[in-house]
Fold this protein.
Amino acid sequence: MSFNTFGRVLRFTTWGESHGPALGAVVDGCPPGIALSESDIQPYLDARKPGTSRFTTQRREADEVRILSGVFAGNDGIQRTTGTPISLMIENTDQRSKDYSDVAQSYRPGHADYAYDAKYGFRDYRGGGRSSARETAARVAAGAVARLIVPGVAIRGWVSAIGGDEIDAANFDANEIGNNPFFCPDAHAAKRWEAMVDAARKDGSSLGAVVTCEATGVPAGWGAPLYAKLDADLAAGMMGINAVKGVEIGDGFAAATLRGEQNADPMRPGADGSTPQFEANHAGGIAGGISTGQPVRLRVAFKPTSSILIPVPTVTRDGHASEIVTKGRHDPCVGIRGVPVVEAMMALVLADHSMLHRAQCG
Amino acid sequence: MSFNTFGRVLRFTTWGESHGPALGAVVDGCPPGIALSESDIQPYLDARKPGTSRFTTQRREADEVRILSGVFAGNDGIQRTTGTPISLMIENTDQRSKDYSDVAQSYRPGHADYAYDAKYGFRDYRGGGRSSARETAARVAAGAVARLIVPGVAIRGWVSAIGGDEIDAANFDANEIGNNPFFCPDAHAAKRWEAMVDAARKDGSSLGAVVTCEATGVPAGWGAPLYAKLDADLAAGMMGINAVKGVEIGDGFAAATLRGEQNADPMRPGADGSTPQFEANHAGGIAGGISTGQPVRLRVAFKPTSSILIPVPTVTRDGHASEIVTKGRHDPCVGIRGVPVVEAMMALVLADHSMLHRAQCG
Amino acid sequence: MSFNTFGRVLRFTTWGESHGPALGAVVDGCPPGIALSESDIQPYLDARKPGTSRFTTQRREADEVRILSGVFAGNDGIQRTTGTPISLMIENTDQRSKDYSDVAQSYRPGHADYAYDAKYGFRDYRGGGRSSARETAARVAAGAVARLIVPGVAIRGWVSAIGGDEIDAANFDANEIGNNPFFCPDAHAAKRWEAMVDAARKDGSSLGAVVTCEATGVPAGWGAPLYAKLDADLAAGMMGINAVKGVEIGDGFAAATLRGEQNADPMRPGADGSTPQFEANHAGGIAGGISTGQPVRLRVAFKPTSSILIPVPTVTRDGHASEIVTKGRHDPCVGIRGVPVVEAMMALVLADHSMLHRAQCG
Amino acid sequence: MSFNTFGRVLRFTTWGESHGPALGAVVDGCPPGIALSESDIQPYLDARKPGTSRFTTQRREADEVRILSGVFAGNDGIQRTTGTPISLMIENTDQRSKDYSDVAQSYRPGHADYAYDAKYGFRDYRGGGRSSARETAARVAAGAVARLIVPGVAIRGWVSAIGGDEIDAANFDANEIGNNPFFCPDAHAAKRWEAMVDAARKDGSSLGAVVTCEATGVPAGWGAPLYAKLDADLAAGMMGINAVKGVEIGDGFAAATLRGEQNADPMRPGADGSTPQFEANHAGGIAGGISTGQPVRLRVAFKPTSSILIPVPTVTRDGHASEIVTKGRHDPCVGIRGVPVVEAMMALVLADHSMLHRAQCG
C-alpha cells in the first residue's frame, strides 16, 4: 500500500515527488478561528531549507508555501482557519535536469531504490521520487499549523550528537542552537562538528546524528491507550522520518541498564497543593502512554546519508554486479536538517492528542 | 481518548482489566480457510504465562484461551477461519483479593496511576487495571493468529541484555533460548543473569532488559510509505508495549555513530540471477519504509519494573507527601516476559502489511 | 475484507455468529465517569428480543448481557465507565441442533449464502452464521451505552408501514408504540397489521416494513463534512442493518418531487433571541451534513424476510438446479424488530459525532 | 470535526472552497503501473462542468485538471501511476467578485449557512465556501482514476425523474443519455423536462430529481461485512453528495411493500455450469453487504436547489427576522449535474472494495 495520511483527528496527507512540479500537505481537522497566514509557516520551512550552509545539500529551493484553502478573512481583515481542510503547496524550482541513468539502472544501497522497485515494479528515480527527504518540507509546513493548535506547548529540538560525538550537557545553551549551522546547543561541540562534517564531506562520506526534542507545557492526560499511546504515536511519527533508525522516549535504552529505584521519578506535592511535581524525568514525560505534565522528551537516531561519493558494490536492475557512486547534491549529515522535521512531527502528534483527549474527556 | 484497535487491514481490538472477569481480543480481517484452534494459540500464551519460574511474577494464571467466533468446522472436521471476526477470551482466575488501599490512595511512580487519574478523573486501581501488563496476553493470542497468516515468515525473539549485561554474539545459540527462564541464547549470560535477577529480587529492586527480535522469510516489498512505513508501524507496535522506552530498527542508535560507507549494505547479484543479495544488514531489512527481503531485525528497550519494594517518595490522591512500597506479585525484570509480546507484535505488523501490500500490488 | 468496527472516536466492534457460543461488542472511546450497569442495557435488548409475540421468530433467547470490562465501582459503590474499552457479551442459548443439510448445500435467494461462499470460499451455514440478524443484539447493547453519552438526546423509532400499509399521521400517538407488538404509534394500523402479518405467516410468506426514527435534543453543529457528514454516517449505519434497502433523511425521495420553495425550511428568530427556529423540517434536521438543531429524522426500508416457506428456485453449491424452502424459526416481518436496531445505530452515530464535534470545536 | 477523506484502502482527500484559488483531491493507494494522464480525467469533468446548457448554472469554469504527483513516464514514454499519492488540482477561474453582504448577513434556508456558523463560529460565505457543490469536481476527478482501477466494471448513471416526472422504462435507450442536457435515457421525458425546467427557472424556482446508477461487471464477493458492507459504503458515499436526501439499493423502499416471494431473486445454474444466474435483481446486486455478481444498482434522491429567487423567510446572523432571495448563478435542478458525481462515487467505492477484497481473500 501507499498510505500517506498521519494523525487521528488532526490528520494530514502529503503528496509530491522530489522532481515533480510541487509537493504539499492537506491538513484536516484543524479547529476554526485560528489566525493563519503563510508567514506563520514560512520560518519553519526556512529553518529546514536546503542550501543555507556548506553543511547541507546545495540544492536551492525557495520553499515558499502557499495556502490554497481552509482560511478566510472576516471583517477584521485577519485571515483565520475555517475548520475546513487546509491545503498547503510548495513548488519545486531547482530540479536539476541531470542525467539519471546511473540511478535509473542501479540500486543505491541504503536508499529505497530497490525496495520501491520490488514493491511497485518501477519507480520515479529522479531525485529519489517520493522517497526523497524533500517530502519532509510538507511535514514541516503541516507542523507549523499544528503548533498554533497547542499554543501553550513549546517545542524545541537540537542535534545532540554527530558521528558519535555528543554534546556536553554542562555546555547546554538553548540560545546557541540558532547560532550555528548544526542546531547545536553546545558551542564547543559545534566547533568540533564543523571540522568533522567538513572532513566527511571532503572524503565523499557522510555522518550519522542524534536529534533530541523536548516539549514543555504539555498537560497531564494526553494519550490514547492502549493502541494510540502518546509514546507509540510519537515513535511512529519519528521512525517514519527519512533516515531514522531509532527512537527513545526519556532515557530510552539507558533505562534498560538501570535498577528500578534508579529509574523511578519520585513525586512530591506541587507548590499549588494540587499538581504533583516530579523529582526526575527518566520517563520522558509519559507513563502508561499518557502525558504526566513533565516535559515530553525523546531522542531520534539518524543514520549517515546513504548518498556518498565512495563507491559501493551494488546490482543493476537487470541483475548484474555493479558499483555506484552517488553524485549530485546531498547533505553530508542528513540528521542536521532533521531537527525541524522532528519538531514538526512532535507538534503534529501533540496537537492531535490534545484534540483526541478533548473528544473523550471534554 | 481510549483507542484499543491496532492494525490497518488485519486489525485487532483488545479489552479487559487485570482484575476483571476476563480479557480478550477481537481479530478482524483474517483471511478465510486457515486451520485454527485453541491449540495453535495456547503455546504462545504458555510462553508468556506468569508463575513459571522464580524470575517472573508469582501470580498463577492458566491463561487458557477460548475462541468464541470466526471459525467453523466443515465436512472434513477441521476447524478453519471463516473470514469473520475471531473473538478470543482469557478468563482471569487468580486476582488476589488483597487490600488495595495503598495503591488506591497513592501514586506509584513509574506506573500509569497518576496519568490515568489525570486523564480520566479516576481509575480501576486493582492490579493496575487496564494499564496492567496482563493485557499483553491478548496481544500474544492475537499474534498467534497473525503467524498463521504469514506461514513463510519465522519470527524469533530473545533477551539480549539484562541490567546492561549483554549477551556475547559469539555464544549465540538459538536452541539455547528455550533452555533457560530468560529467553537467553547465550548459556553463559543466562548463568550470570540468574545471579543478577536473584539479587535484584532479594533487594526488592528490579532490572531493565533489551529484547531483540528477528523475522526471516519476509519478502521484499512490504510497507506502506510514507505514513504506514513498515518500520514506523513496528515502532508504534513495540513502543506501545508496557515498559518499553526505546525501539531500534537494524543498527539503530549505533548507525548514528557510523560513516556512510560503514553503514552501507552492499548488494550483489543473487544466486538465482534475479533476487539481489546483501552483504550486510545494518538497515535491519527495511529501506524507505519497505522490506528489502533481508531479515527484519529490531531491538526493544524495557525499563526496570516500576513495582519495587524499595520505598519511593510519592504523593497521595489528595496531594499529600507520602512514600510507597509496591507489594504484591511482580516481575523482577518485566523485559523477560516481553519476548513473546514483542514477537506477537512483530507477527501482527507483518501479517497486516502482507495483506496491505496485496491490496495495492496484487 | 471483514471489517467489524463502526464509528470514528466512539467506536464499537462486534463479533459472533448465530450458532456460536456467544456474540458481543467492544465499545471503545466512551467517556469516563458514566454510571453503567447491565440494567442500563438490558431493557433495549429485551425490546429487540425474539420470541416475545407470534409476530417474531420463535427462537427463545434470554439475551442477557454481561459487562466484562471498562467499568469500576468507586467508594460510592456506583459502577462507572473508566474510559477504557467496554466489552459486552451475550451468550447464545437456543441454537437448535437441527439438520442444516439443505442450507449447507443450497443457496437461499435473498440471503447472504451465495455471496459469502463467493467471497470466502465457504461459510458457517448454521443459522446464517455471521450474516444472521442475531448480530444486531450486539449493536443494540452498544447503542444503550451510546445513549448515556448524549443524555440530552431522546431517540424514538417506530414502524411506519408494513407491506405498504402506512400509518395515518393523524393517529400518531407515541404512547401507543409500546402497546402493540409492532412498535406502531397508530392503534388502527396496529390492528390492520395484526391481520396482515398473521396472514403472511400462515401463507409461509413475509412482509416488508418501513421504520421511522427521530432524535430530539440534538444541538446544531454535529457532523464532520465533507466525508463524515452526519447524514452520510447515519446512512452508512442504517444501510448496514440486515435487510435494509433504503434510507431517507427528512423528506427523502419525496423531496425530489418538490419545488425549491416547497422544500424550504423557513427560519425565524427564536424566542430566546439567539437560536433561530424553523417553520418546517423537510431537511430532517441536517444541512450541509451538519445538524441544525431541529429533530433529526430518517426513514429506513426493510425488505420482506427472505426466509419463507414458499419454495424458490435456486442452485446447489455444486451448481445444480434446485428449489429451497426455508424452514426454521423466522420473523415474518423482520422490520418490526428493526426498530431497536435503528434506534441503536442512531444513538451510536450521534454520540460519536457529539465527541467528534468536541474534538475540533471544543 | 472536519473530515475530508473517503475510502478504506483506496482513499481520497479533497480540499478547496468555491471561491478560493483552487480545489483538489489527493488519491492515495492507487495501484502502480496504470497509464494515467489528464486526458483520462478531463472528459468526466467536462460532463459535470457548469455552463454547458441553460439548464445548469451559468458560472463558466474550464475545470481543467492538473496531475501534480504520483505519475511517471518510463522509457516507453507512457505516463503511469507509481503507487504514490496522486495530487489533482483544478483552479477556480470564474469566481465573480459580487457583493456577498446578503449571504454574509442572512442564512439561506436549505443551505449549510446556519449549520456552518453554529459549528465553526463563522464561515466563508463566498459561493457557499466549502459546502459548495463546486467541490464535487474533485470527486469526479478522483472517480476517473478509480475507474481505471476496475477496468472490467462499467458504470452508467442517468436522471430517472425530475420534479416527480419519471422516465418510462419502455423508452429506455442508453444512447439517448448523452443526447440531451438532462442525462435522460428517455427522449420523450427529456422533451417534457425541458419545458419543466425552463418553467421552474423562469419562476425563480427549482426542481428535485432522482438519479439512477448501475455498475455491470462487478464480480461476486466485494464488500466487507459487517461494518463496511458494500451497500453501506455506497450509501455513505451517495448521501454525502450535496443535496442528496435518499439512497436506495435495488428496489429500495418499493421492496418494503412486497412479500417475500415477490422480492426473491431466484437463482438457476449458469451457462458455464459454475456461476449461478439470477432471474431477477430486486436486491440491486448486493446480499449480506457483498456483491452477488449481478449489476449493482442504486437510486439517489436530490432535493430541489435551495438557491431560489422566490423570497424565503429567514433570520440574520444577529437574530433578526429577514427574508432572502438567492441571486447569483445556480442550477435550477442540481440533480442533473449530480449524475457524474454519483458515477464517480460508485467508481470510488467499487475500486476501494476490489482492493479490500484482494487484501483478505487474495
